[in-house]
């Protein structure tokens, strides 16, 4: 395997880790903006998504460290378009986050094999299903918007 081919899965893992860092932050913000009293269903969905993305982030950090590389750290700050407490707007932000995660997981699927690929397929599937649970629409090719346009 060439050096470039060896870097590709690592690069995809690092990009996916960066997306998971962002998703963890986004769901922490969204969870703080939604009212558990008036919208317990959305609160539960955001909490579940937060926990899922946190677990994936930790898994990716471990996989990268197991390869003998330093996992990318989280950014110092993230811009989250969630200045409202309107549940519909917060759900829109959550759907966008899941769409972005689906895109990096689709890249990870294309860049890996074996157990890593199976794990990435599971994460991609979960992101696509979560978009639906957040009120989004089904995509023929989740994470591959360029294929949707054909």
From TrEMBL:
Superkingdom of origin: Bacteria
Domain DUF4439: 12-145
Pfam families the record matches: DUF4439
Entries under InterPro entries matching the protein: DUF4439 (IPR029447), Ferritin-like (IPR012347), Ferritin-like_SF (IPR009078)
CDD domains membership: Ferritin_like
Protein name per Swiss-Prot or TrEMBL: DUF4439 domain-containing protein
UniProt organism field: uncultured Nocardioidaceae bacterium
